[in-house]
Every structure is written in C-alpha cells, then in structure tokens.
User: What shape does this take?
Amino acid sequence: MPSIYFVDVTNRDAAQTARVGISKLEKTMINVYLGEMGVHQSEFAFPYVRHEQNYARANLELQGMGAMGGLVLQGWCRAQVGDVEASLPTGVEVLNLSISTSDQMIIHKFRGKLDREKVISDMVDAVSYARSHEIRDIGANAEDSSRTDMGYLTEFAMAAREAGAARFRYCDTLGYDTPNSIYHRVRELAEKVKIPIELHCHNDLGMAVANSISGAQGAIDGGVDAYINTTVNGIGERAGQADLLSCILALMFSRDMNGYHIADDINLNVSAKLARYVSNAFGIPIPINQPGVGANAFAHESGIHADGTLKDRRNYELYDFELLGRDEEECIPTGRVITTGEYGGLAGLRHVYERLGVVFEDGNEAQRALELVQYANAHTQSPLTDDELRFIAKYPEQVRKILTMTP
Ligand SMILES: [Zn+2]
Assistant: This one.
C-alpha cells in the first residue's frame, strides 16, 4: 500500500527567499528539530555552493552520529554534471536535480540555449553521472511541471526513471494548479511512469496546502508513494509554499483521509517549538491565525463560540492544542538576567551553562565553548536559545565546522 512521506525544504527553498535569511547554525537546528518531529527528509543544502559546504559536511556527520533521528539529508542542484561534480566533495548521498520543463521557461528563460530534447538529455546525463559517483538516491525535478504539457512531462519523467532516478518531483512552481487539476495530472503520471512522486506546491493563489494534499491523493490512487514538500510556517519564494504542520493536520483530521497513510512517525509535540524557532530565525512573525500554532488557533471570544467550546471543545476545535506542544509556555525572567554571546566572557558563560545543567571539565573546555558561543552569536545576531547553547556544548567539533566560512 503506497504511503505519504514529508520532505521539508525550509533549508533550501525558504532559505533562498528574497529579503530573509538564516545562519548555518540555525539551518542545523532546523534539521535537528525536523528529525525530532519524525519528518522523513530535509532538503538541507546547495552542496555545490562553497559557503554551504562546511555546513553540509558537518550536518552529514551529525546525522551519522544520530543527532537528527532518522532524518535523510538531501542536497539540491541544477541538473548539470558540473553541479553534481561540485557537490560530491561534501559526501552528500541523496540529491535532487532540477531543470525547467515548461515551454514558457524553455523558450523565455533558456532562450534557445536548450530545447525540449536537450532538457531531457541534460537530466539524463546528470542522473547518470550522479549514479556512477555514489549518489545512492536521486530525485528528478521538473520545474514548472504544472505549466508543462502532459505528453512531454511524461516523456521527461520516463527518461529520468530509466536513467536511474528514484523519484520524480512535480513542481507547481507558480502555484498554478488547482486541487482538481493536480490530482488528475499526478495520478496520470503515477499510472504511466510508475515512479514515486514528490509534490512541490507554491502558494501564489493560496492553494499550496490543498494542492499538496490533492496531489498526494493522486499519487496514492495512481499506485505510487507520495512525498509532500513543505516548509515550516509556509515560508518560501513570493507568497510561500505548503506549510508543514497544515499538511500534516489536513491528512490527519480532514474528511475522507482513510486510505491515505502517513509513513513518517510524526511527533506533533515538536510543532510549536519548531514554528517558534523558524519564526525567530527568519524574523517572520507567526500569523495570529496560522493553523495549529497561531495565537488565535484555539482562541474563542464571541458568545456562541465561547459557550459552545466551554461545553465541548469539539464544537469548535477539530484537534487538541495539547497535541502540538503549545501548552509549554516560554518563561521570560523579568529580574536580573545573565546572558552569553558575541561579547560575553567566562563567568557569564559558566553561569548560563550551569543553569542548563552543563558543567565543563576544565578551563580549556570552557574557553573553547566560549569561543564557539561568541562565533555562533556573531553568525545568528540574535540571542542564542537554550537548545542552541546545549547543542554547541554537545557537538563542539561539528559546530566549529559549521561556523567556518572562508571565501
Ligand atoms: Zn520551490
């Protein structure tokens, strides 16, 4: 029975969004939280981009050490042999390769450099090269799938599968599909090509979550596994993309979802912590009406609603707030507080870490931790969280690598 998996692309697609950004340490913490939440895979890096490479190496090491649960770390690059080659030194073993397939983009973006045949042969060459160089799992991405004609898209996916791609990513790059159209198009691809399909939906028309769910149903009904691409809080290019928590909640609690099984062992209790962390890291507030984690997601004031909810929460709530870890209130001290960071010293560092239950073996170890804390804060430029401080103390060598960037 085919199943549904989650591939979170916050660290690639959301990270490349205009006007916002996050540090490599913050990307690492997002991977840690995604692992804790039980998400299948993180599209975690551009492994061919030099400033990502130490981060990529360190995260692959951390994953090997069990710091991210069962999370699969997958890199993203263009479907070009040169990009794959440049990614190899990081040790990445799972790659998604991307190229545009719509006539709009072939004609108006590639402008004669590539035609339909060359797009397929570039993908086939890149997949073949990756396969012969120890990339064990390859996804073939068709950018702008939703504006690509079905005959050509099927031919493209078939060629990628025959070259050795294990998955096909259906990209609704501009959020052009409707739940109805994506269901039928993905189902047809699943039935004809018989390859697991990723749903990559953007939110330009406000339908990213609905399209992701409907596309996943199309894949399952067509007989293949579905991999839903998401970002935390729906952050992404332009109007964003499918929100991770909304997609999970929709599969769990909306009508007629029997038969659509989530393969990932999801721990919803991490949701509130992850949403808050990503919001702070990107500097983008969580909307008050955000599903599950917004301040108003479980708030009731109007007479009829408050009365009904007090009598039985199911009158106005489909799912319980306790599920999402949002009842763990953050305590912010209002009296004296000692913090540590970019310009901190040893006494403050020891004080902060003692509060976290971390004791350093000797002065050298404390000094090394202080240096890492200073650099980490110089990267994040926002107060280090307790989890970040614990992480720095637990994995100093990997953190040192993550913080090392030399142009
Ligand atoms: Zn995208």
